């Protein structure tokens, strides 16, 4: 599949698919809250993980996408892909407390709330990355050009000196120096690279190229490819487990998750979240690890559900509400 074939699905709002209600899980059930951006309904929702129910929903902005929670868990930032701002909400009641404007045609998409307290976001329409310093105070914004088409997702180094983007239209990964402003470095990586994740130690950059059905392990500073890994079909996202031992791709066309051993670079198993026949009905996109690395959450945008997966067993524990085309995910526990 290619972008042209997917556009009608990505852009069209689909009717919800009936689902059984959340069922009881084991005594080790998840606590905390999951936040869901409804990109078709223009909403932000809060799901209580203990009960599996939606406890709050508010209007957000046009076509909201990626989400990130603050280090203290008190706020969640939303990239307004259909507009020009990053909006910040309280996690307690989803009250909007701030909107940071990024400029004409920004179309922010990927977003990271760094442990240092600062926000970093791509601005796809401006072919750039923004650093939002002190977002909850008298914030400052700094823009860094990638010069590439479709700078979509972003990762940031543990020391916040560097950022990396996947550039869908240019088929590249770009390294941005956030401190010296030296010229960005871009390297072609597969077809339609989109997913990106940095290992917790900052030593390996993982990229999923949806048009190649591959994941790539890169040297973060040279962007040299260390390993190519065959995954399931259309690996839209990649996420590294907090422990750093596994990377997982969200394989949209298969409805599964490819589990990669980060030490060997081999796919060691596949988790079937839905069948290949169900894959287009559910349209699995964003994936998110729980902070303890025990569960994965997979946004199923067309069926308005979020699959909660036990990583050890590969069992789909339940499907949580993701009304309005749930896509961007964030979590606090």
TrEMBL record:
<dbReference type="InterPro" id="IPR015943">
    <property type="entry name" value="WD40/YVTN_repeat-like_dom_sf"/>
</dbReference>
<protein>
    <submittedName>
        <fullName>Beta-propeller fold lactonase family protein</fullName>
    </submittedName>
</protein>
<dbReference type="InterPro" id="IPR011048">
    <property type="entry name" value="Haem_d1_sf"/>
</dbReference>
<keyword id="KW-0732">Signal</keyword>
<dbReference type="InterPro" id="IPR019405">
    <property type="entry name" value="Lactonase_7-beta_prop"/>
</dbReference>
<dbReference type="Pfam" id="PF10282">
    <property type="entry name" value="Lactonase"/>
</dbReference>
<dbReference type="InterPro" id="IPR051200">
    <property type="entry name" value="Host-pathogen_enzymatic-act"/>
</dbReference>
<feature type="signal peptide">
    <location>
        <begin position="1"/>
        <end position="18"/>
    </location>
</feature>
């Amino acid at each position: 599949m290619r972008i042209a074939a997917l556009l009608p699905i990505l852009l069209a709002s689909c009717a919800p698919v009936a689902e059984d209600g959340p069922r009881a899980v084991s005594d080790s059930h998840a606590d905390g809250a999951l936040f869901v951006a409804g990109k078709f309904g223009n909403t932000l929702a809060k799901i209580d993980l203990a009960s599996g129910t939606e406890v709050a929903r508010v209007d957000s902005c046009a076509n909201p996408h990626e989400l990130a929670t603050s280090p203290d868990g008190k706020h969640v930032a939303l990239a307004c892909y259909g507009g020009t701002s990053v909006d910040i909400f309280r996690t307690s009641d989803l009250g909007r407390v701030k909107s940071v404007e990024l400029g004409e045609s920004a179309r922010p998409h990927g977003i990271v709330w760094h442990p240092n307290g600062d926000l970093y976001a791509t601005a796809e329409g401006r072919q750039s990355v923004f650093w939002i310093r002190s977002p909850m105070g008298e914030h400052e914004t700094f823009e860094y050009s990638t010069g590439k088409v479709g700078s979509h997702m972003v990762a940031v180094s543990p020391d916040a000196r560097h950022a990396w983007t996947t550039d869908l239209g240019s088929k590249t990964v770009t390294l941005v120096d956030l401190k010296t402003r030296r010229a960005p470095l871009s390297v072609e990586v597969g077809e339609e690279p989109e997913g990106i994740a940095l290992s917790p130690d900052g030593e390996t950059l993982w990229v999923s190229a949806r048009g190649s059905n591959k994941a790539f392990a890169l040297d973060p500073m040279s962007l040299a490819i260390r390993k190519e890994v065959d995954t399931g079909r259309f690996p839209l996202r990649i996420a590294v487990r907090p422990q750093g031992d596994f990377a997982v791709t969200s394989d949209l066309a298969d409805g599964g998750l490819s589990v990669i051993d980060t030490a060997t670079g081999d796919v060691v198993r596949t988790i079937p979240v839905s069948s290949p026949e169900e894959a287009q009905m559910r349209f699995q996109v964003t994936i998110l690890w729980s902070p303890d690395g025990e569960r994965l959450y997979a946004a199923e945008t067309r069926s308005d559900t979020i699959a909660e997966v036990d990583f050890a067993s590969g069992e789909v524990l339940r499907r949580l509400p993701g009304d309005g085309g749930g896509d961007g995910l964030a979590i606090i526990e």
